[in-house]
Model the fold of this input.
Amino acid sequence: MEKDMEYYIQVSGRIMKDNLDKRKSLTQKICDWYLDQDKEDICLIASGSSLNAAYAARPFLLKYSKFDISVLSTVEYLDVYREREKNRFTILISQSGCSTNIIEIMKELDKEHQPFVLLTGNENGSASRYTDRLVEYGVGNETIDYVTLGYSTLIEFLMLMILEIGFQKKEISDQEYETVVSQIRKACEMQELCLIQAKELVQKRYQDLLCMEKAILVGDGANLATVREGALKFQETLKVPTVYYESEEFIHGPDMQLTPDYSVFFIDCGKASDRLYDIYKATSLITERCYMITDQVHDKRDGQIRMPCRLPAEITPLYTAALFQYIAAHVTKEKNNFTCHPLFSRMEQAVSPKTEDYDRIMKEKLERSRREENG
Done:
């Protein structure tokens, strides 16, 4: 199978299970660094999909820790919260290892003699020149720009990191630890099942999805981050204007723009009430282009992905992104729509989020991937 977006979505469940099996060795360095210093609270700083992954993991991180964890964009950190965050254990995240905004913060922290850790999916990225405290979080060699595997494995790594810290500090019991590990393993299996159903859904609603021109994504709690990531994926691949909302925020104004040509997606997993499902049904009175991932038993409707069991809400982001990732990957490929407008190159030359050697580094990753395939 060609190593495109679809390939990396396809292998995500398996690689997450592999990372779960080697969780202690995978997280050992960062756990040791955390436990060896005297700062308790944690600050995660990222942008793009990495920021969305940190947001998705945060409810889990807060549930299984006895300290505070903040998640900030690079701009929020530099312009607003820098002074407040200086006494936290600082983790910078750049999957590519070439994010110019993360490198800027690394330089600033170095000037202030403030320690930090870099989480990355690329140990050979430009950012590696600015720190010796670097952790590859288990994504391996994802060789494409539109990250999917890196998003899911980052969420899992952050969960496993907090789980191991809590277990080593004896704040999580043996029984609770094993229960959570089994839940994460189940979520990895659910990712594979969600992907199977996403493929079926795309085939059933192929023409509607092929003609999608504007979309709204709705999710709550940890899955607000999932729909945020889904909106990013739709916009950078399908080039479709997409917004995301919490369910109650959606029906407090944004729903007034709805017409029958809107596509609206809902995540109804880990919920304790029928409220979001009621909003989904009400939305379908305006547009038939309604889609939902749900783990609840309701009236069966076209456009639904039904998950066979319920997991705690804070664990569900490990699988719920699969629908949006697959639509972005498959429909964009079907439409041959990965190419941006010709004028985009001018903008990218004027202001780029990546370092100047990014193209060379990505080419090296691709060549390394080919060598690995050839043994």
